Amino acid sequence: MNRTQPIAIVILALIILPYRAVAEPGDAARGERMYRACLACHSLEPNRNMTGPSLAEVWNRKSGSLASFPRYSPVLKSAGIIWTDDTLDEWIKDPQHFIPGNTMIFPGMKDTRQRADLLAFLKDATQPGHAPKTAQGGSQMGGMMMGGGAVPNLKRLDPTDRVQSINHCGDTYKVATADGKIRDFWERNLRFKTDVSDEGPQKGAPAFVGAGMMGDRADVIFASPEEISGFIAQKCSRFLLGHTPQPRYRRSCPLRERPASNLRVTARD
Ligand code: HEC
Question: Smallest Cα–Cα separation from 132: which of 179, 140, 114?
């Protein structure tokens, strides 16, 4: 062995090693942390759709083909791509480059290592029955207050979160919750939403969800669209006597034609 050989081996190793590191399979534990980038919009539970479709069993599924998800863009539906290690890697790297015009608002994950980790995690977690509880957007993001994938179940609400009555007067909504609190909102700062799923509120018991850090904005989530206008009383009395249920809904309620989720209503009068 001449003297230059060991040096040559070291140099060769320095060149080759970084490439080997990239080619190694991803680390699923690290990938679970990467999945936080997806959590706000995707669930791993079968057919639990949020902003985006459930990712359960996504491997080998055709793009835009989950029957229970009604909000695919035409481009994703007609792309005819089968989701595999390679196509998912391309998609996550730069969704708008891969399928231009799709409606997934995600800038892309440029780091090869991070994508490998994420896909290692997803490949296992999307198998039937493998979805880890922590990746379901449970309580780790701060429950009711955060949008970060935490979609709280609204069936059983604490009195502080259960809306009893809503009055509209001038430009102001007065929202009374079951704990006796009444909060005033400028009408443009209160959003009315619906959740008709199993996780939505009980009929007649809309949920109050703080939506802004400053407490000046909030959401009220109803069990169905037709409940909304019946629940809001037009009155300017100084004292709120609680909600009087109004069983009659207007027949020609235009809200019925709209999709039931992410509905936003702004009062005009
Ligand atoms: C802001 C919300 C949002 C975020 C964040 C997001 N997605 Fe999506 N995702 C969507 C929407 C909406 C669609 C449907 C797009 C369309 O129809 O054009 C989608 C579609 C997909 C699809 C295609 C599914 C199918 O059935 O064809 C995959 C796979 C996917 N996303 C994976 C991910 C991964 C992995 C992440 C995290 C790195 C992520 N998404 C982050 C909203 C999001």
Answer: 140
